[in-house]
Every structure is written in structure tokens, then in C-alpha cells.
Sequence to fold (415 residues):
Amino acid sequence: MKLALKGGGKIRKKPFFKWPMFDQCEKKGLLEVLESRRWFSGYLGGDPGSKVAEFERKFAQYQGAKYAMAVSSGAAALEVTLRSLGIGAGDEVIVPAYTFIATATAVMNVNAVPIIVDIEPNHLCIDPEAIVKAITFHTKAVIPVHYGGQIADMERLIEITTENNLIVIEDAAHAHGSMWKGKRAGTFGKAGCFSFQESKTITAGEGGIILTDDDGLAKRARSYRSNGREEDRPGYEHHRLGWNYRLTEFQAAILLAQLPRLEDQVKTRTKNANYLSQELRKIPGFKPITDPPGTELNGHYLYSVIHEKQELEGVERDRVIEALRAEGIPCQGGNLPINRSPVFKKENWEKAGMSFYSRFLEREFDVSKIKTPIADETFEKIIQFSQHLLLGDKEDIDDIVKACQKVSENASELR
Ligand SMILES: Cc1ncc(COP(=O)(O)O)c(C=O)c1O
Fold:
């Protein structure tokens, strides 16, 4: 069969599952908030009786945490958590190279230094042995990212961080519902941070949340997200340098409508991803990223495969993506390793008020010297499919398989 890119027929003629999704529940919730004239959740956020408080309670229960504090974004969740844990100037926080920039910029926004380390190639999460090598006298915390929905190696990570007295903050922006050895993402460390931005697996367009079992952290996080106000004190008293990072009642109404669907959607994506991996393993050139052993559910914010050039007649990854898209399969490359991002260039770093020479660290901090070969290789080779492609039925997944098969069989046409 001729490739669609070369004028042949497309494999996929219909659109995939549309995201974001909504039905009458979102409409009803939004109208209810509108007509109630209670659009804001209170000066501390999450006042009793608010939609925000109801969502916090239900999301904490679903993930398996004692407290949840809703905030305006995933990045805000990380910043509030870091500051609530007392992390600031002079502290180092270890983060993976393969993630969204906010994992590191949240650290910089509380004046601490992100120490970027490599990932492991099998599940694309932080490499625990790279953490061991990066620990210094100044290290305070580690932020593992559950990349794409795969849970980082939390067993080894907790071992390392316990031994070295470090705090673990999980960046679970990709992992709503993911479950590993009976526990869900965001409940392994001191805190778990999630995003509800539009592409995420439960969304209000924007939004975020912090999970924790720690009473003190929960209390401080509520204060920091609300301009440093304090419970049982007047609203004009400000006790800490905080932000206004509150979620609105409209956003909470949408999230409350979405939450009851989440578990079924996580199960559907887990099942479809397993079937897709089983079929792709038979096709030369497309190597699926695997789930860590012990995975029960993978929320699959992303489904990733590694492009094996030598199996595809030497055809470049971007050309393969072009060919798949022409077949009607939306897909994309991956994140630039964050250490290669311009934000870390000396002049940008200094503009942000950060010093390249840290008087606390007593050494020059130069991100360009950091080597992350696995993250670099992943960036060159990865092909990613968004979560909503996995929300359909077997026929949808078969179309992805057929398109990969067709590209693999006709790779020579793409040279
Ligand atoms: C791994 C990771 N962390 C943090 C964030 C930040 O979330 P937000 O965009 O809601 O600030 C994202 C967003 O895509 C992300 O992918």
C-alpha cells in the first residue's frame, strides 16, 4: 500500500476521541456557580461549602492522601510546596533533565538551585544512581517526575533520600490515577504536585493541586497560596511572602464533573496502551516504552515509543512522524532536555536575579556543563502519542498499529 505522504490512501479517516471532553455535568456545574454568585473559594481558598473544598476532598480521597490544596497551576503547586517546606536560597534540589521546564523553574522561583540529572532509558524517569552522584552538602530535596504516567523508581528513591535526609516532592503532572504496588502517584513522598492544564488527563483549562499527609505542610501551603494569610486570623493580616495562586469555583465545578470519569479513563488507557505495546513490539522500528515492574495502572498522559532508525532504513525520526501524521495519526517529538533550554544561558539566568556564581554553593553553577546523554538520546528518538488517542476502542488502537506497520514496511520510500 502506498504511503499517504506519497499520495496513497490514509489509514485513519475519522478523528480520534476529542479532548478536552465535557457533557451536561460540566455545563450544570458551571451554571450553578454562575447563578450562585459565589465565584471565589474564600480568602484562604477552599472555604467550607465551596466547590474547591469539595474537589480537594474528593481528589485527595481518590489518590489516597490526607490533604489536598488546589492552586492555579502545576507550576504553582511545585512553588507553594517548595516554599512551604522551607526550601530557598542556598538550597539545591535535584530534578530530571527530561521533563517540562516548570519542574526546574519552580525551584528557581523560590531562589533555590535546580541540579539537573539524567533519566533512565526504560521508563524515562529520573535515574536514582544519578541522584546519588549529585547529592552535596546543600541538597535539600529531589523532585522525581512520573514521566508520561510511568511511576519513577520510588523504592530506590526513598531508600536514597531516607539515607541522605532529603525531602521527596513528586511531580505527578503526568500521572493522575497511575498506581504502582497499590499506591497512587503523589502519595510516595512528602508531597505530590499535579497539573490540570488543558492537555492533562483531568482538566479545567488551567489548575493544579498539592497532596500531602503532613498537617503542617497542608496548613502552610494554604497560607502561601493565599498571600500569606492564616487560618482564624483577619484577612488583611499577611504572615508570609505568598502568592494569589487560588483556583476559582468555576474551575472546581469543571473538575468535579470530570473526576468521576477519571478512574474508568485511566483503566481504558492502561488497557489500550498494553495492547498497543504488544502489537508494536512485532513491528520493526517502533520500540514502546515499558511500564516499571509493579505498575497496576498507568494514567498515560503520554504514550511514548522509541524510533529505531536502523530498523527503518535509516529514515529520520521527524520524517517518520510526518508519515504517521499523513496517515491520520497525530503524534509528536518530545521535550528538549531542560538543561539545553535558553533559560539557563548565563545572561537569562542573571536577568532572573540568579547568580551564576553561588556564594552559598561556593562554586560556579554552569548548566551547559551538565551532561545528560540518555535525555539527549530520548529527545532525538522519541515519538509521542497524546492521552486522548488511547481513550477510544480497539479499532482506534488498530489504526495506530496499522499506520506504524505501513510506515515500517514502506520506510525505503521515505528516504
Ligand atoms: C512534568 C510537568 N510538571 C509541571 C508542569 C506544570 O504544570 P502547569 O502547566 O499546570 O503549570 C507540567 C505541565 O505540562 C509538566 O508536564
About this structure: The chain has two domains: 4-19+261-334+376-414, 24-258. The mean pLDDT is 95. The chain has twelve helices and 15 strands.
